[in-house]
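Appendix B, example 12.
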Amino acid sequence: MLATFSDYVQGNIENYSVMSVVRGDAFRFDLLSSLESGDAVEAGQEIVRVYSHELARNLSRLSGELAVARASLAAVKSGEKEAVAQEAERGLVLAKERAGLHNLIFLRQDSLYRRNLISREAFDLAHSTAQISAIEAAVAEARLQSVRTGAKPEEIRMIESQIEGLEAEISVLSDQTGTLTLASPLFGVFQSSPGTDTLCTVEDTARVIVMPVPIKHLAEVAPGQTVKLRIPGHAEEFAGTVLRLEHRVRIINGAQVMMATATLAGSITALPSNLVVMGSIETGRHSPVQYLRLWVSDMFQ
């Protein structure tokens, strides 16, 4: 998935990020259902949420391993009595029975999933439940062993190191999970897209105008000049200001031009994007002779 933040006024890309899908992973893209094309969005407002089954499984596994390590550390640091050991034995028996039952359910769900008789979500739920039950059994067994044997300082330090490593891995995956939520970088207008390559866009309400200027008129165009636009069928006239000239020659209809960038005054939402209109740049007054010379030049070029 690709996300870009383009500044059309300055003609550059402010931010460019790519989210790659791990082979074999199942991704789901959820667009905020309440948004419709033309709705205003705030800066920082969540627009798209992406769910990764692989990332969720890894987080679940690491969280379980962290729980095991913390339980082991707590057990080895405390001097448990025989009554606590007996309680730990009963807990281990129950945890193993529960893990066996959930594993049996998972094997049945796996067989049904391979025959396309259940959904991926049902399979993932059974898989996660079996994993969590196995982790709980491992926690119970670690607790019982620690109660019976006690631990040396070296063993405590080793478990603490394991906990630090697991916490670091979980922090990295949690940060990665945060990147799966796409928020609007600016206040603008939301536009959904029916295409397969673009999910949605957020457009700034400050409209940008791109105007081709023939190279023979470049000497007369400069930043700060007034731009006027008229839309056929509309009595209203829109005004803007030239911001910059692109220093690159293009060919349009066989003529050499350079693109001038301007913005309309204020925030205007009434005009749609990518609209083609007639416009003009006020470059100053010409004498009748100069105007005639320019008119003749335009006729023969």
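The radius of gyration is 33 Å. The longest strand covers residues 237-252.
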